[in-house]
Protein backbone atom coordinates (compact mmCIF):
# COMPACT_ATOMS: atom_id res chain seq x y z
CA UNK A 1 0.00 0.00 0.00
CA UNK A 2 1.33 3.48 -0.86
CA UNK A 3 2.59 5.46 2.11
CA UNK A 4 2.33 9.27 1.96
CA UNK A 5 5.64 11.16 1.96
CA UNK A 6 5.98 14.90 2.59
CA UNK A 7 9.00 17.13 1.95
CA UNK A 8 9.28 20.89 2.21
CA UNK A 9 11.89 23.51 1.39
CA UNK A 10 12.38 27.20 2.11
CA UNK A 11 15.45 28.70 0.44
CA UNK A 12 16.94 31.77 -1.26
CA UNK A 13 19.43 29.58 -3.20
CA UNK A 14 18.33 29.04 -6.82
CA UNK A 15 20.53 25.96 -7.27
CA UNK A 16 18.94 24.33 -4.21
CA UNK A 17 15.42 25.17 -5.42
CA UNK A 18 16.22 23.83 -8.90
CA UNK A 19 17.57 20.53 -7.54
CA UNK A 20 14.57 20.12 -5.24
CA UNK A 21 12.13 20.46 -8.17
CA UNK A 22 14.15 18.16 -10.42
CA UNK A 23 14.20 15.41 -7.80
CA UNK A 24 10.47 15.59 -7.14
CA UNK A 25 9.16 16.34 -10.62
CA UNK A 26 11.31 16.09 -13.78
CA UNK A 27 15.04 15.70 -14.28
CA UNK A 28 14.89 17.81 -17.47
CA UNK A 29 13.43 20.82 -15.64
CA UNK A 30 15.29 24.12 -16.16
CA UNK A 31 14.64 27.20 -13.99
CA UNK A 32 16.14 30.60 -14.77
CA UNK A 33 15.50 33.87 -12.89
CA UNK A 34 14.02 36.68 -14.96
CA UNK A 35 13.60 39.12 -12.09
CA UNK A 36 16.11 39.98 -9.37
CA UNK A 37 17.75 36.69 -8.22
CA UNK A 38 18.43 38.32 -4.88
CA UNK A 39 14.68 38.43 -4.22
CA UNK A 40 14.25 34.67 -4.55
CA UNK A 41 12.17 33.32 -1.69
CA UNK A 42 11.43 29.77 -2.81
CA UNK A 43 8.78 28.00 -0.75
CA UNK A 44 7.44 24.50 -1.43
CA UNK A 45 5.45 21.84 0.36
CA UNK A 46 5.25 18.66 -1.71
CA UNK A 47 3.53 15.36 -0.91
CA UNK A 48 3.91 12.12 -2.85
CA UNK A 49 1.19 9.51 -2.72
CA UNK A 50 1.59 6.59 -5.09
CA UNK A 51 1.12 7.85 -8.67
CA UNK A 52 0.39 11.46 -7.67
CA UNK A 53 2.69 14.29 -6.55
CA UNK A 54 1.05 17.40 -5.10
CA UNK A 55 2.90 20.64 -4.44
CA UNK A 56 2.20 24.17 -3.15
CA UNK A 57 5.00 26.24 -4.72
CA UNK A 58 6.10 29.88 -5.07
CA UNK A 59 9.41 31.54 -6.02
CA UNK A 60 9.03 35.13 -4.88
CA UNK A 61 10.74 36.46 -8.03
CA UNK A 62 9.99 36.26 -11.76
CA UNK A 63 11.32 33.06 -13.32
CA UNK A 64 11.20 31.14 -16.60
CA UNK A 65 10.70 27.36 -16.50
CA UNK A 66 11.45 24.90 -19.32
CA UNK A 67 10.62 21.19 -19.23
CA UNK A 68 11.83 19.10 -22.15
CA UNK A 69 10.09 16.09 -23.66
CA UNK A 70 7.44 15.42 -21.03
CA UNK A 71 6.67 11.68 -21.37
CA UNK A 72 5.95 10.03 -18.04
CA UNK A 73 3.08 12.00 -16.55
CA UNK A 74 0.09 14.25 -17.02
CA UNK A 75 0.39 17.53 -15.16
CA UNK A 76 -1.98 20.24 -13.95
CA UNK A 77 -1.05 23.69 -12.60
CA UNK A 78 -3.64 25.56 -10.51
CA UNK A 79 -2.64 29.16 -9.68
CA UNK A 80 -3.75 30.24 -6.22
CA UNK A 81 -2.53 33.80 -6.75
CA UNK A 82 -1.20 35.69 -9.77
CA UNK A 83 -1.17 34.67 -13.43
CA UNK A 84 1.01 32.13 -15.23
CA UNK A 85 1.76 32.16 -18.97
CA UNK A 86 2.16 28.66 -20.40
CA UNK A 87 3.14 27.33 -23.83
CA UNK A 88 2.75 23.65 -24.70
CA UNK A 89 2.18 21.90 -28.04
CA UNK A 90 1.54 25.19 -29.83
CA UNK A 91 -1.11 26.37 -27.34
CA UNK A 92 -0.70 29.40 -25.08
CA UNK A 93 -2.72 29.43 -21.86
CA UNK A 94 -2.95 32.25 -19.32
CA UNK A 95 -3.67 30.40 -16.10
CA UNK A 96 -4.94 32.18 -12.99
CA UNK A 97 -7.22 31.34 -10.03
CA UNK A 98 -10.10 30.98 -12.49
CA UNK A 99 -8.43 28.60 -14.98
CA UNK A 100 -6.00 25.65 -14.65
CA UNK A 101 -3.50 24.60 -17.31
CA UNK A 102 -3.19 20.93 -18.36
CA UNK A 103 -0.20 19.16 -19.90
CA UNK A 104 -0.21 15.93 -21.90
CA UNK A 105 2.87 13.64 -21.68
CA UNK A 106 4.31 14.76 -24.99
CA UNK A 107 6.29 17.82 -26.07
CA UNK A 108 8.14 20.64 -24.31
CA UNK A 109 6.73 23.11 -21.78
CA UNK A 110 7.64 26.79 -21.39
CA UNK A 111 6.38 28.81 -18.41
CA UNK A 112 6.63 32.49 -17.53
CA UNK A 113 6.09 32.42 -13.78
CA UNK A 114 5.86 35.86 -12.08
CA UNK A 115 6.76 36.60 -8.47
CA UNK A 116 3.08 37.09 -7.64
CA UNK A 117 2.14 33.53 -8.65
CA UNK A 118 1.73 30.78 -6.06
CA UNK A 119 0.28 27.55 -7.39
CA UNK A 120 -0.75 23.96 -6.86
CA UNK A 121 1.30 21.59 -9.00
CA UNK A 122 -0.32 18.19 -9.60
CA UNK A 123 1.63 15.42 -11.33
CA UNK A 124 -0.23 12.19 -12.19
CA UNK A 125 1.62 9.22 -13.63
CA UNK A 126 0.58 8.50 -17.18
CA UNK A 127 -0.69 4.93 -16.70
CA UNK A 128 -2.79 5.84 -13.66
CA UNK A 129 -4.84 8.52 -15.42
CA UNK A 130 -5.19 6.54 -18.65
CA UNK A 131 -6.51 3.48 -16.80
CA UNK A 132 -8.92 5.63 -14.83
CA UNK A 133 -10.34 7.38 -17.89
CA UNK A 134 -10.52 4.06 -19.71
CA UNK A 135 -12.57 2.61 -16.84
CA UNK A 136 -14.72 5.71 -16.33
CA UNK A 137 -15.74 5.83 -19.99
CA UNK A 138 -16.05 2.06 -20.34
CA UNK A 139 -14.35 2.22 -23.72
CA UNK A 140 -10.91 2.19 -25.29
CA UNK A 141 -8.88 5.40 -25.18
CA UNK A 142 -5.78 6.43 -27.07
CA UNK A 143 -2.44 7.22 -25.43
CA UNK A 144 -1.50 9.93 -24.74
CA UNK A 145 -5.00 11.16 -23.99
CA UNK A 146 -6.14 14.07 -26.22
CA UNK A 147 -6.93 16.36 -23.29
CA UNK A 148 -7.91 20.00 -23.44
CA UNK A 149 -5.22 22.56 -22.59
CA UNK A 150 -7.10 24.02 -19.61
CA UNK A 151 -10.25 23.82 -17.50
CA UNK A 152 -12.44 26.18 -15.49
CA UNK A 153 -11.85 26.56 -11.73
CA UNK A 154 -14.80 28.80 -10.95
CA UNK A 155 -17.75 26.49 -11.54
CA UNK A 156 -18.42 22.81 -12.04
CA UNK A 157 -16.09 19.86 -11.46
CA UNK A 158 -12.88 21.91 -11.81
CA UNK A 159 -13.69 23.93 -8.71
CA UNK A 160 -14.47 20.77 -6.73
CA UNK A 161 -11.34 18.95 -7.92
CA UNK A 162 -9.03 21.86 -7.08
CA UNK A 163 -10.57 22.15 -3.61
CA UNK A 164 -10.07 18.40 -3.10
CA UNK A 165 -6.40 18.63 -4.09
CA UNK A 166 -5.79 21.62 -1.84
CA UNK A 167 -7.42 19.91 1.14
CA UNK A 168 -5.50 16.68 0.55
CA UNK A 169 -2.17 18.51 0.37
CA UNK A 170 -2.96 20.44 3.55
CA UNK A 171 -3.78 17.22 5.37
CA UNK A 172 -0.73 15.35 4.06
CA UNK A 173 1.64 18.11 5.16
CA UNK A 174 0.18 18.36 8.68
CA UNK A 175 1.20 15.96 11.47
CA UNK A 176 -0.98 13.05 12.59
CA UNK A 177 -4.02 13.54 10.36
CA UNK A 178 -6.51 10.92 9.28
CA UNK A 179 -5.36 11.23 5.66
CA UNK A 180 -1.77 10.41 6.65
CA UNK A 181 -2.87 6.83 7.34
CA UNK A 182 -2.19 4.65 4.28
CA UNK A 183 -5.69 3.20 3.96
CA UNK A 184 -7.38 6.60 4.01
CA UNK A 185 -4.66 8.14 1.84
CA UNK A 186 -5.26 5.50 -0.83
CA UNK A 187 -8.94 6.47 -1.03
CA UNK A 188 -8.11 10.16 -1.39
CA UNK A 189 -5.46 9.32 -3.99
CA UNK A 190 -8.07 7.47 -6.04
CA UNK A 191 -10.48 10.42 -5.73
CA UNK A 192 -7.83 12.81 -7.09
CA UNK A 193 -7.11 10.59 -10.11
CA UNK A 194 -10.72 9.72 -10.87
CA UNK A 195 -11.82 13.31 -10.27
CA UNK A 196 -9.25 14.59 -12.76
CA UNK A 197 -10.39 12.00 -15.32
CA UNK A 198 -13.91 13.39 -15.04
CA UNK A 199 -12.83 17.05 -14.97
CA UNK A 200 -10.46 17.43 -17.92
CA UNK A 201 -11.84 18.17 -21.37
CA UNK A 202 -11.58 15.29 -23.85
CA UNK A 203 -13.27 14.30 -27.11
CA UNK A 204 -14.73 11.02 -25.87
CA UNK A 205 -18.48 10.98 -26.00
CA UNK A 206 -18.47 13.22 -29.07
CA UNK A 207 -17.47 10.29 -31.29
CA UNK A 208 -14.50 11.85 -33.13
CA UNK A 209 -13.40 9.69 -36.05
CA UNK A 210 -10.69 7.23 -35.11
CA UNK A 211 -10.79 7.94 -31.37
CA UNK A 212 -13.96 6.61 -29.85
CA UNK A 213 -13.97 2.90 -29.20
CA UNK A 214 -17.05 0.72 -28.88
CA UNK A 215 -18.81 0.44 -25.55
CA UNK A 216 -17.80 -2.79 -23.91
CA UNK A 217 -20.18 -5.59 -23.02
CA UNK A 218 -20.74 -6.42 -19.38
CA UNK A 219 -18.75 -9.65 -19.65
CA UNK A 220 -15.59 -7.79 -20.74
CA UNK A 221 -16.12 -5.13 -18.07
CA UNK A 222 -16.29 -7.78 -15.34
CA UNK A 223 -12.97 -9.29 -16.41
CA UNK A 224 -11.32 -5.86 -16.70
CA UNK A 225 -12.57 -4.83 -13.26
CA UNK A 226 -11.24 -8.06 -11.73
CA UNK A 227 -7.76 -7.60 -13.23
CA UNK A 228 -7.55 -3.93 -12.29
CA UNK A 229 -8.66 -4.67 -8.73
CA UNK A 230 -6.04 -7.41 -8.20
CA UNK A 231 -3.35 -7.40 -10.93
CA UNK A 232 -0.95 -9.51 -8.82
CA UNK A 233 -3.32 -12.46 -8.70
CA UNK A 234 -2.23 -15.38 -10.94
CA UNK A 235 -5.10 -14.95 -13.36
CA UNK A 236 -5.71 -17.45 -16.15
CA UNK A 237 -8.05 -17.09 -19.09
CA UNK A 238 -10.17 -19.84 -17.58
CA UNK A 239 -10.81 -18.15 -14.23
CA UNK A 240 -11.30 -14.78 -15.93
CA UNK A 241 -13.95 -16.34 -18.12
CA UNK A 242 -15.58 -17.70 -14.95
CA UNK A 243 -15.65 -14.16 -13.51
CA UNK A 244 -17.15 -12.89 -16.77
CA UNK A 245 -19.71 -15.70 -16.90
CA UNK A 246 -18.87 -16.85 -20.42
CA UNK A 247 -16.71 -19.47 -22.09
CA UNK A 248 -12.98 -19.01 -22.72
CA UNK A 249 -13.32 -18.59 -26.47
CA UNK A 250 -16.20 -16.13 -26.14
CA UNK A 251 -14.18 -13.98 -23.70
CA UNK A 252 -11.08 -14.03 -25.90
CA UNK A 253 -13.08 -13.00 -28.97
CA UNK A 254 -14.83 -10.24 -27.02
CA UNK A 255 -11.52 -8.89 -25.71
CA UNK A 256 -9.98 -8.77 -29.18
CA UNK A 257 -13.03 -6.96 -30.50
CA UNK A 258 -13.57 -4.48 -27.64
CA UNK A 259 -10.12 -4.10 -26.01
CA UNK A 260 -7.85 -4.80 -28.97
CA UNK A 261 -5.88 -7.60 -27.30
CA UNK A 262 -6.32 -10.85 -25.40
CA UNK A 263 -7.14 -10.87 -21.66
CA UNK A 264 -3.65 -12.02 -20.66
CA UNK A 265 -1.97 -9.46 -22.92
CA UNK A 266 -4.02 -6.77 -21.18
CA UNK A 267 -2.99 -8.20 -17.80
CA UNK A 268 0.69 -8.14 -18.77
CA UNK A 269 0.40 -4.51 -19.91
CA UNK A 270 -1.33 -3.60 -16.65
CA UNK A 271 1.43 -5.24 -14.60
CA UNK A 272 4.18 -3.60 -16.68
CA UNK A 273 2.61 -0.19 -16.04
CA UNK A 274 2.55 -0.89 -12.30
CA UNK A 275 6.19 -2.01 -12.35
CA UNK A 276 7.17 1.11 -14.29
CA UNK A 277 5.34 3.36 -11.82
CA UNK A 278 6.97 1.69 -8.81
CA UNK A 279 10.48 1.75 -10.29
CA UNK A 280 10.05 5.41 -11.24
CA UNK A 281 9.51 6.41 -7.62
CA UNK A 282 11.74 3.86 -5.79
CA UNK A 283 15.15 4.35 -4.23
CA UNK A 284 17.73 2.27 -6.19
CA UNK A 285 19.68 1.80 -2.97
CA UNK A 286 16.76 0.04 -1.31
CA UNK A 287 14.93 -1.62 -4.20
CA UNK A 288 15.89 -4.11 -6.90
CA UNK A 289 14.24 -4.70 -10.26
CA UNK A 290 13.71 -8.38 -9.50
CA UNK A 291 11.88 -7.62 -6.22
CA UNK A 292 9.45 -5.30 -7.97
CA UNK A 293 8.97 -7.66 -10.92
CA UNK A 294 8.18 -10.64 -8.70
CA UNK A 295 5.80 -8.55 -6.62
CA UNK A 296 3.74 -7.78 -9.73
CA UNK A 297 3.61 -11.37 -10.94
CA UNK A 298 6.59 -11.64 -13.31
CA UNK A 299 8.51 -14.85 -12.61
CA UNK A 300 10.57 -15.10 -15.79
CA UNK A 301 12.94 -12.12 -15.55
CA UNK A 302 14.43 -12.25 -19.04
CA UNK A 303 10.98 -12.28 -20.66
CA UNK A 304 9.89 -9.53 -18.32
CA UNK A 305 12.89 -7.37 -19.27
CA UNK A 306 12.18 -7.82 -22.98
CA UNK A 307 8.49 -6.93 -22.59
CA UNK A 308 9.37 -3.93 -20.43
CA UNK A 309 11.82 -2.56 -22.97
CA UNK A 310 9.35 -3.07 -25.81
CA UNK A 311 6.70 -1.07 -23.93
CA UNK A 312 8.81 1.75 -22.45
CA UNK A 313 11.87 1.93 -24.73
CA UNK A 314 14.33 1.43 -21.89
CA UNK A 315 15.38 -1.28 -19.45
CA UNK A 316 13.87 -1.64 -15.96
CA UNK A 317 17.26 -0.90 -14.38
CA UNK A 318 17.51 2.37 -16.34
CA UNK A 319 14.10 3.44 -15.02
CA UNK A 320 15.15 2.67 -11.43
CA UNK A 321 18.52 4.35 -11.77
CA UNK A 322 17.32 7.46 -13.64
CA UNK A 323 14.10 8.09 -11.73
CA UNK A 324 12.99 11.76 -11.79
TrEMBL record:
<dbReference type="InterPro" id="IPR018062">
    <property type="entry name" value="HTH_AraC-typ_CS"/>
</dbReference>
<keyword id="KW-0238">DNA-binding</keyword>
<keyword id="KW-0805">Transcription regulation</keyword>
<dbReference type="Pfam" id="PF12833">
    <property type="entry name" value="HTH_18"/>
</dbReference>
<dbReference type="InterPro" id="IPR035418">
    <property type="entry name" value="AraC-bd_2"/>
</dbReference>
<dbReference type="InterPro" id="IPR018060">
    <property type="entry name" value="HTH_AraC"/>
</dbReference>
<feature type="domain" description="HTH araC/xylS-type">
    <location>
        <begin position="221"/>
        <end position="322"/>
    </location>
</feature>
<protein>
    <submittedName>
        <fullName>Transcriptional regulator</fullName>
    </submittedName>
</protein>
<keyword id="KW-0804">Transcription</keyword>
<dbReference type="InterPro" id="IPR009057">
    <property type="entry name" value="Homeodomain-like_sf"/>
</dbReference>
<dbReference type="Pfam" id="PF14525">
    <property type="entry name" value="AraC_binding_2"/>
</dbReference>
<dbReference type="InterPro" id="IPR050204">
    <property type="entry name" value="AraC_XylS_family_regulators"/>
</dbReference>
